[in-house]
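Whether sequence alone determines local backbone shape is best considered at the level of individual chains. For completeness, the protein is quoted in full, as a sequence line and a line of structure tokens:
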Amino acid sequence: MSILSKKSLIASTIVGSLALTVSNIASADVLTELQKAESKIFKASEKSQAKIDNIYEQTLELLVEYRNTVTEAEVLAEYNDHVQRMVDDQRASLASLEKQIAGIDKTKQGVVPLMYRMIDTLEKFIDLDVPVKFESRKDRVQMLRDVMNDSNVSVSEQFRLVLEAYEIESNYGTVFDAYQGELDLGGQKLTVDFLHMGRVSLVAQSLDMKNAWVWNNSSRSWEKLGDEYLKPITDGIRMARKQLPMDLTKLPVFAAGAQ
């Protein structure tokens, strides 16, 4: 081999080595750039994923808020429907009340005269009835007349009081009772014990238990009783006052139509 050929071979070897070296350097630079690019891509991807995660969380929150809003809207709609039904019912009630109020004056026109007639009838009944607690019953009638003239008392309350007076009068027919009062014997007044068995019998006895009288409703007068009635009347008074146990006793009774 000639010297020239050897030099050319050496030169070619050197050039090849240099080319390989340059190629390796170039490859290393490209790899570095690729690694940098890949790192940037990863970082960008992480940021993008973080944004995606954040958007997803916000979306979930908005979805929950939307569902809550829809639920509240539905609840409010149902409540509004309920309130509307109540308002409609109240309007119907008001309309009914207005009709009733419109008829109150007509009702008063019929009820007020009726009450006056009921009071007059009650007073006549008391005057003709057995005079059990006569004064208090007459006072009750007068109270009713005063109430009818009192503008502060409503018509309904006036009517209630009239009905109550009738109920009290009705109860006198079933009560077995004793009370103390004054007996008028032709202008002479005595304090006595009265005993009445409903409206069947009304008797009076002096406080010393020595005299007794019976009311004759036909003659509208008091009649003297014999001594045989003194003890039965005394016992009857004590039974009515719960001082003796209830038992049979003898009281004078006028037969129907008897004079």
Observations:
- Residues 3-102 form the longest helix (100 residues).
- Strands lie at 176-185, 188-197, 201-206, 212-216, 221-224.
- Residues 176-240 form one domain.
